Amino acid sequence: MSVLCRVACGVLVVLGPGGDAVAGWNVRAPGVGGALATSGTAGNSVASGAVDEMPAWIEARLAGLLPEDPEAYFLLGEEIIAEPVGKAEEDLARQLFALAFELDRSDGSPSWIAPSSCLALASIARLESDERWLRALANRLDPRYAAPVWRGRGGAEGISEASLRAAEAVGEARAGWGVQASMLLDKPGVREVLGRYGRLMGFSSSTGALWQVEQWSREWPCRECGNERVVFRPNTDPPSYRECYTCRGNPGPTLSREQLVAHLRFESRLLEGISRSWGAQLALDGGAPLREPVAEELAAVMGVSVERPYWRAGWVANPSEGAPRGATVGAEPGG
Ligand SMILES: [Zn+2]
Fold first, then answer.
1. pLDDT tens track, the chain, 335 positions
2. Which of 2, 84, 161, 275 gets the most CB atoms within 10 Å of its CB?
C-alpha cells in the first residue's frame, strides 16, 4: 500500500511499502530554472490546479537516470524536445542537457556529449545571442562543431546585423519615422528577429511586436507636418509658423511609461549582444537576477547542479532522498 504524506512544505510524496518515496508532486516554484511541477506515475490522480502533469514515461525515465551515464540524460532531453512541448517540458529538457554537459565533463575529458548538449541547448535557446554563445562553447570543446568554413564569417555577422536593424526599426517607428522603419523592416532577417524576440517588448504573442511596428510605420510620419512639428501660416509676412494640430509637435505614437521601458529593454538586449546574453534569457523568463555567461555557471543558470544528479520529484544529491530540499518549494498549500 502507499501512504500519501507531506514531507516538506509544498511537497507531496507517496511512500511505498518500504517507506521509500515512489512519486511526488512539487508545487510550482517561482523563478527561473526552479522546480518543475511534476506528477507521479500513471494512475496517481492527486493533482491540484497548481500542479502540471508530466507524462508518466518521462517521470519513469527521470527516476532511472544515473550520473555515471550522462548519455541517458542527453537522450531523454532529445526525446522530450522531439515533439512540440510546453514550457515545463522544455525547461526540463534544458536541465537534462545541462546535467549531461556537466556530468560528461566532470572527469576532465568530455566526450561528444558535452558539445552535443551545448548544441541541443542552442537549438532551444530563446535568444540568438544565447544560441551563438552555446555554439561557441560547443566549438571550444570540440572544433568539429564549428560552422562550416565555406559559410565564412558572413553568417554570424548577418545575424548581428539583423539585430541592429531590428532595434533601429523599433526606434524609428517609435519616433514616427515610418518610411525609415519600413525600409529597415525589409532588410534581411529583421522581421524574423522581431518575431523571435518581440516578447521582450511586452507582447504576449510572438507576432505582436512586428504587427505594432508595421502599424506605426503606416501611420507615420505626421500627415499634416511631415514630422516638421510646425506648419506654415499662409499669408503671413514675415512668414510665421504654428504648432502642428495633428501631432501637437511630437510625432510618433504615444507610449505609456511601461511600454517605453519595454521598448528600451528590447533594444538594449539586442544591442548588448553576446556578453550579457543570459540577461536577455532571464528577462524572457521573468526577470530573475542577471548572470554572466561563464561555462561553469551553465548548470546553475539552467537550474541544476552536478551535485544533484538524481531525480526524485526534483533533482537531489542522494538517490535515497525522497524529495529535493533546495529551491523547489514554492508555496505552502493551505498553510
Ligand atoms: Zn504633425
1. 433 333 333 333 333 344 343 333 333 333 333 333 333 333 333 333 333 578 889 999 999 999 999 999 999 999 998 888 888 888 899 999 999 999 998 887 778 888 889 888 988 887 776 777 787 777 777 666 554 444 334 444 444 678 888 888 998 999 899 999 999 999 988 998 888 887 778 777 778 889 999 999 999 999 999 998 888 888 888 888 899 999 988 899 988 888 888 888 788 777 765 334 445 444 444 443 333 445 676 777 777 888 899 998 889 998 887 654 444 433 333 33
2. 161
DSSP annotation of 238 reads S
Q: Give the Å distance between the CA of 260 and the centre of ligand 1.
A: 21
Residue the block writes with cell 535557446: 125
CA of 211 to the centre of ligand 1 (A): 23
Residue 21: strand, helix, or coil: strand
Computed on alpha carbons and rounded to an integer, the radius of gyration of the chain in Å comes to 25
- Gap from CA of 313 to ligand 1 centroid (Å): 60
On the question of a cis peptide bond just before residue 238, with omega within 30 degrees of 0, the verdict is: yes
The model carries a pTM of 0.43
Task: Give the number of other CB atoms < 10 A from CB of residue 67.
Answer: 17
